[in-house]
Design brief:
Length: 258
């Protein structure tokens, strides 16, 4: 049993009693034992069909299912006797759907606040692989699907090349914000590709670059050149990502083989 502060354990019990709840889990850095004392407690609440959050509303503002998107779903940011707790709702029907798609080597990417490259739908499956059950019965974790390893890296690299090409177009127009933004997105996409090749689950973009071994590219972003040197700067980012010079562009037929 995972040791929780008494106030957080009380909340876990309360969540488990909500009508429709099937499991309560600990996620995030706490589940990975990589958090310091200041980090939030990420508590996942899995439910089937509908969930009655009436009892939880007494603790603070509740964001109902769907209000945070089809993947992040909804939840609440609470304080339990000084502890910051994020309650994250997860619809089991949605989790099972995207897990099956991941096993078939398929996924989609949604725009989500706080994400540069977007959130892949297999994140819901990744969460099951790292979470620790607290109450009830959570779905079983699955190994990283071989089909996803084969397809996801290629797809992320198509997106990476597209982002780099678009960064060059914007750089040639002197658009510093647009060029650096697209280049940063390309870094995240290459990082996703690297970890997909390894068969390593990713739950968010935190430490994504470091986990993929791409930390040296951070130094390129330490200083952005004036507009006259922007195109060369984007080329340097591409070089640090290991993108071969003159490789097929995502904008050409040769680059659209995915």
């Amino acid at each position: 049993m995972t040791d929780l502060p008494p106030a957080v354990a009380e909340l876990a019990d309360e969540l488990a009693r909500l009508p429709g709840a099937t499991a309560v889990v600990l996620g995030g850095s706490r589940a990975l034992a990589s958090a310091d004392a200041s980090r939030d407690w990420d508590i996942g609440l899995y439910y089937r069909g509908t969930i009655d959050l009436t009892a939880l509303a007494a603790r603070g503002t509740i964001h109902p299912p769907g209000s945070w998107g089809r993947l992040m779903n909804g939840g609440a940011w609470l304080r339990c006797e000084g502890h910051k707790v994020d309650v994250l709702l997860r619809d089991l029907d949605v989790v099972e759907h995207w897990t099956q798609r991941a096993m078939e080597g398929d996924f989609e990417v949604d725009a989500l606040l706080g994400y540069l490259a977007g959130i892949p739908t297999y994140t819901l499956t990744a969460e099951l692989a790292v979470c620790l059950p607290l109450r009830g019965t959570a779905p079983a974790a699955i190994p990283y699907p071989a089909r996803l390893t084969a397809t996801a890296a290629q797809r992320w690299r198509f997106s990476r090349s597209f982002s780099l090409d678009y960064a060059r177009v914007l750089a040639s127009r002197g658009d510093t914000v647009g060029a650096t933004g697209q280049a940063a997105k390309a870094v995240m996409e290459e990082a996703h590709a690297v970890l997909c090749e390894r068969g390593q689950w990713v739950c968010n973009e935190k430490q994504l670059i470091e986990s993929a071994g791409l930390a040296p590219v951070q130094s390129v972003f330490a200083r952005t050149p004036d507009p006259s040197g922007l195109v060369q700067w984007v080329d340097l980012v591409a070089d640090r990502l290991g993108v071969p010079a003159g490789s097929a562009s995502a904008w050409t037929d040769a680059g659209r083989n995915t």
